[in-house]
Specification:
Serine Threonine Protein Phosphatase 5, Tetratricopeptide repeat; 2 domains; mainly alpha; about 170 residues
């Protein structure tokens, strides 16, 4: 998974997708349904990030039965997050904002601040589309603090840009 993510972030989307496909096909039927779901989830996310929201939406819809099989709150929150990103890319920011809010709150409640910061940043982008500048500033500032404290420069800069645009 990490290798595929590194390839994708390095601009090698097709290779990353090939790695995920290969991982999924080499898994035995008896192996972890949770791991198979995570592979598919990332596969969908890569398609979305590669500018293919319609394909991501179709794959996400096809995966719904598997999501329901895994009754883990963390998986559910990540499902809301992915669904929200797809909806936003398809031009449905209000629905996306509601799902991102639920996912964000889950990670805050579970005291997983880094994931909450990433979701908060995604929600700030969606809220900016809706013209909700005060909420954008609040979420971007929180993400800025988290990324700054961890030395995550790229995302720190993204939060800073959002914060400045909302001012």
């Amino acid at each position: 998974m990490r290798y595929a993510t590194a390839l994708f972030e390095g601009g090698r989307a097709n290779e990353a997708l090939d790695i995920l496909r290969e991982a999924e096909t080499t898994m035995q039927a008896s192996e972890s349904p949770r791991l198979k779901l995570i592979i598919r989830h990332n596969y969908i996310r890569f398609h979305l990030d590669d500018g293919k929201p319609e394909l991501a939406h179709q794959l996400f819809s096809d995966l719904q039965p598997r999501y329901r099989e895994i009754e883990e709150p963390l998986i559910q929150a990540k499902t809301w997050w992915l669904n929200a990103l797809i909806l936003s890319a398809l031009g449905q920011p209000s629905d996306a904002s509601d799902l991102l809010n639920a996912a964000h709150q889950h990670f805050l409640d579970q005291k997983i601040p880094l994931e909450a910061a990433y979701i908060g940043l995604d929600r700030a982008v969606v809220l900016a589309k809706l013209g909700r500048k005060q909420e954008v500033r609040r979420l971007a500032a929180a993400a800025l603090r988290e990324f700054g404290a961890r030395g995550i420069q790229r995302d720190y800069l993204a939060a800073l840009i959002l914060l400045r645009q909302a001012s």
